[in-house]
Amino acid sequence: MTAKSLEDIVALCKRRGFIFQNAEIYGGLQGVYDYGPLGVELKNNLKAAWWRSNVYERDDILGLDTAILGHRKLFFYSGHEDTFSDLMVDCRACKHRWREDQLQDGKCEHCGSKDLTPPRAFNMMFKANIGPIEDAEHFVYLRPETAQGIFSNFKNILDSSSQKLPFGVAQIGKAFRNEITPRNFIFRVREFEQMELEYFVKPGEDEKWHSTWVELRFNWWKMQGLSEKNLKLFEQPQKELAHYAKKTVDILYRFPHGFEELEGIANRTDYDLGSHTRAQAEFNLSSKVKSNADSISKLAILDLETNKWWVPYVIEPSAGVDRGVLALLNEAYTEEKLADGKTRIVLKLKPALAPIKVAVIPLARNNEQIVGKAQQLRKMIQAWGLGRVSYEDTGNIGKSYRRHDEIGTPFCLTVDFETIGEDPQKTAHRDTVTVRDRDTLKQERIALSQLETYLREKLQK
Questions:
Q1: Average pLDDT in the 329-350 region?
Q2: pTM for the complete prediction?
Q3: Same domain, 278 and 360
Q4: How far apart are the C-alpha atoms of 21 and 33, rounded to whole Å?
Q5: CA of 249: how far to CAs of 175, 177, 217, 428, in Å?
Q6: CB 269 within 8 A of CB 313
Q7: Are 61 and 161 within one domain?
Q8: Which domain holds residue 367?
């Protein structure tokens, strides 16, 4: 079963060190969160899975990491200065501010009043002063998306890699949006991470590639452990499309607050590369830089077979890392009744995504041989490169199991008297450990000589 409520997930995240409210000691900063010791592992594992799937396992996609600070002209010519806004209203009764499209029946969510101001546009980009002078001319934007850094580096990538259409550029990084009403934990926040891919194709082939990427991305999320019953596709109506989009299909997930966007796959046509290409001529003219054919077509690609320049169309799968983490936590959160009547909370995360892959637990922490063997085993397993391995020394094997169930650890390894050969009745079990499976609760003894093969096979699932 999925989590009963968002409150269940929030409580688990704080209790076990997944996610904390930013600056909580000072009352917290709304819409900003910090990832704790376990949360950062889960988040990094999700990003690594995305990067491996899109960059390492393909020959047609390259990686990039661009700056968070963005030149004002980059977002002027991209259309963000004029269009990247939400309509907001203020409640005259209680002075709260809301996004118009999020209000139910035109009522203030705080006090229920319908005495609202007319809607007005609110640009969501953050500004930052740059340099020693603070005035209207010296500022940059914190990027609201990672895409523009890819588009502005298009020619640099072509010149340094000799790519041919179709090809893509992948990027994972922070983005910032001054949301009017952050809500639903890490679902809608002001600072977040994106896993974004710009896939460049020939005009006329864009619709085929758009459909291909919708299918690829839908199936990828299923492979990460999200059930198909909690996923569905939604094609955005024309009136709701972003200013750059010809068509957008969203992958929706059933979050605790309902079905909402997990990832969007947009057909951006040649809007961005075309806008920035035309901007080069305008910029050169206004800056009195000598313009030529190369500068005007610099964000295009030459087809060597036809000797024709193409301004490529772009298919953009864009997923929120934070929303992905929330979806994984919601999907994995399970409450189970045990045979003894007690209830256990377990995170049934895909083993490859789990923050801790293996916990090594000494059965008796006052036995130097058992403790030494357990510590040696943890170091050995960590060196295998399977992910984070934890040494658990609480002195209570039952509590250790429950804790690792709750944080999603797939396997607990117990070092006991049989492991070190102190049990004369079970000498055959020397140099073996008990391996406990998180999901099935099954325990089996595995020889240390076979342990690496056993774990590698299990953790790949």
A1: 93
A2: 0.88
A3: no
A4: 5
A5: 21, 22, 11, 59
A6: yes
A7: yes
A8: 356-459
